Known about the structure:
Elements: E1 5-10, H1 15-25, E2 36-41, H2 44-59, E3 65-71, H3 74-77, E4 83-86, H4 98-119, E5 125-128, H5 133-143, E6 152-154, H6 157-171, E7 178-179, E8 182-184, E9 192-194, E10 199-200, E11 203-204, H7 211-223, H8 225-233, H9 239-254, E12 266-271, E13 283-291, E14 294-297, H10 305-327
Parallel strand pairs: 1-2, 1-4, 2-3, 4-5, 5-6
Antiparallel strand pairs: 7-10, 8-9, 10-11, 12-13, 13-14
Helix pairs in contact: 1-9, 4-5, 5-10, 6-7
Bound molecules: nicotinamide-adenine-dinucleotide and (2S)-2-hydroxybutanedioic acid (LMR).
Binding site for NAD(+): 11-17, 105, 112, 129-131
Organism: Plantibacter flavus
Catalytic activity: (S)-malate + NAD(+) = oxaloacetate + NADH + H(+)
Amino acid sequence: MSEPTVVTVTGAGGQIGYSLLFRIASGQLLGPDRPVLLRLLEIPQGLGAAEGTALELQDGAFPLLAGVETTTEASRAFEGVNVALLVGARPRGPGMERGDLLAANGGIFAPQGAAIGAGAADDVRVLVVGNPANTNALIAQSAAAGVPAERFTALTRLDHNRAVAQLAAKTGAPVSEIDGVVIWGNHSATQVPDLSHATVGGRPAPDLVDEEWIADEFIPRVAKRGAEIIAVRGSSSAASAASAAIDHVSDWVNGTGIPDRPERWTSVALPSEGWYGVPEGLVSSFPARSVDGRWEVVEGLDVAPEWQARIDVSIAELEEEREAVRALGLLG
Ligand code: NAD
Ligand code: LMR
């Protein structure tokens, strides 16, 4: 067996943490031959829940689990970390404005980014799940001196999976036959789930579903699915979010290509290098393949004017968020 990979999960005592940690311990994050050492970071109020989960992880007797450590110290949590899953975030409270939420999360993600910059392993990969995920990733990335920007990503895989599932349900095809979906922009209600390049069993999706369904049902259903889950379940998505986080990191480490579909892509939010006209540095969602352990944005897709108009709205929202956190002094 190789040396354990250090995986740090913040907000480990929360809902997503409870679902995520057992899947990591069982080998679903990195593969069946990669032992993991788990570090659980919590705030004092959440520490008991994280410690209880650590006991349950021990009781799982997972062969790949080399150890579990709980801490409230970011410097300890990120020392030598290879994979950092930043889940813990400040939820929006009653009467809180968007700016208040960004400020509260800046107080979490700037110190965590700095601790990653100071102590992480050279190959560190970071996935931000806690909302507002894209801008929290930007804050952490900007505080992480010495870590390449491309190592900071935010989760739009849940949106991608939701889009695949909706198209599968509409066409009656299994999800395994769907390819080429794209989520553009922010992980918020302005996101753009795009079917123009999607295929179902090799056939173009736009030939199988009508434009009204795409505009009036598919896009709003996917973009507002988070709110739908909250309304129906009484709290935000947890197991599906954890599952998407597993998909994201597993693809990042092991590659997106599969034997019969080497060109397969997924959706990932990562710091823009100007792709598709998205301003440099904004953490926005793009179609991307993972090749040799790195995300490569799929370039050159045609974006029709009606889709571009939707994407522009989401990019404008990300720019507003960036300006708000810049004004708060949160971008180093
Ligand atoms: P939760 O409230 O159940 O758990 C959050 C945990 O984070 C709590 O235990 C809390 O104590 C901890 N925490 C708060 N501040 C922390 C800090 N500074 N350091 C370490 N831990 C800290 O919430 P949840 O349901 O697990 O969701 C977590 C986040 O994920 C939320 O922001 C939620 O909106 C977001 N989310 C994102 C997606 C996505 O697709 N990007 C999907 C679902 C949920
Ligand atoms: C989701 O997409 O399910 C979550 O981001 C919703 C939320 O606000 O926590």
